[in-house]
UniProtKB/TrEMBL annotation:
Domain Glyoxalase-like residue range list: 12-120
Family matches, as CDD domains: VOC
UniProt-recorded name of the protein: Glyoxalase-like domain-containing protein
Cited InterPro entries: Glyas_Bleomycin-R_OHBP_Dase, Glyoxalase_6
Superkingdom classification of source: Bacteria
Name of one Pfam family that matches: Glyoxalase_6
Length: 127
């Protein structure tokens, strides 16, 4: 048996029509800082050690019709609605809620100011 991997998530890469503006949205939402902004590229630092950063670059092609991946962000139980409202206040669009599909998670799907989907999820306490 091989030893466990030391791979960690360093950054999520996103193509954007306006990299700096989209980086500013995500920095406000996640609590990071726009730490780099240069010639069509912007970098948002991780909020805390071990967290993930985000890297934005100028879009090179038209946006695909279907988004293959998206971020699932987790918040403490009972705070999802307030976090969705905060995200909408920052410029996100609330798309839909999934509250009864499975018993271990409830989530809301949103899109950022450029239409990239992401979810804000909460897991009920165990015990």
């Amino acid at each position: 048996m091989s030893p466990p991997s030391a791979i960690t998530l360093g950054a999520v890469n996103v193509e954007a029509d306006a990299p700096h503006a989209l980086a500013a949205f995500w920095a406000q939402l996640l609590g990071g800082t726009v730490a780099g902004d240069h010639a069509g590229f912007a970098y948002v630092s991780a909020r805390e050690p071990g967290g993930f950063a985000m890297f934005f670059r100028l879009r090179s092609d038209a946006r695909p019709d279907r988004q293959g991946q998206h971020l699932d962000l987790t918040v403490p139980w009972g705070t999802r609605v307030a976090e969705v409202d905060r995200a909408v206040g920052l410029g996100a669009t609330h798309r839909w809620d999934v509250l009864e599909e499975v018993p271990w998670v409830q989530w809301s799907t949103l899109s950022d100011p450029e239409g990239n989907l992401f979810c804000i999820a909460e897991h009920p306490p165990t015990g």
